[in-house]
Design a protein that fits this description.
The protein is built from no helices and eleven strands. The chain is mainly beta.
């Protein structure tokens, strides 16, 4: 009897917003381990698996955004062996992006296309990006 082992890996070092990535979970054990489960928090994902005593399972993600960041856990157990404890592996995914800066101003009075001295003016600047950028205005 060989206890179950689990390895979880990703196919990229840096995962960019809008791109794709694949997670691979490899489980090994004898007798054959159960088909593994992959979760991010309480969200399960469907894996495509091949193999018997060594199962290689993958799931792909595309057009990703920041919501794909988080801790992913792949786990399995060998139900035939009562001595085998569940085996799991975790991987932290961070979705990165370029810094996007958006600037808006208050609408001009009377539909004008220019400001006059004394007109109220509010400039709003928003910055989005991972890692967090420093910004000077």
């Amino acid at each position: 009897v060989k206890p179950s082992t689990t390895v979880l890996s990703v196919n990229k070092d840096i995962i960019q917003k809008g791109s794709s990535f694949t997670l691979t979970c490899v489980v090994e054990g004898y007798p054959q381990p159960e088909t593994p489960t992959l979760r991010r928090g309480n969200t399960p994902f469907t894996l495509s698996c091949s193999g018997v005593n060594i199962k290689t399972c993958t799931v792909g993600f595309s057009n990703i955004d920041y919501s794909y960041s988080g801790q992913y856990t792949c786990s399995t157990k060998n139900t035939i062996s009562s001595q085998d404890k569940p085996s799991s592996a975790t991987l932290q995914i961070t979705v990165y992006s370029q810094t996007d800066v958006t600037m808006t101003t208050t609408p001009l009075p009377g539909g004008r296309t220019y400001y006059l001295t004394g007109d109220p003016l509010t400039i709003t600047c928003s910055v989005e990006g991972v890692p967090r950028s420093s910004f000077t205005f």
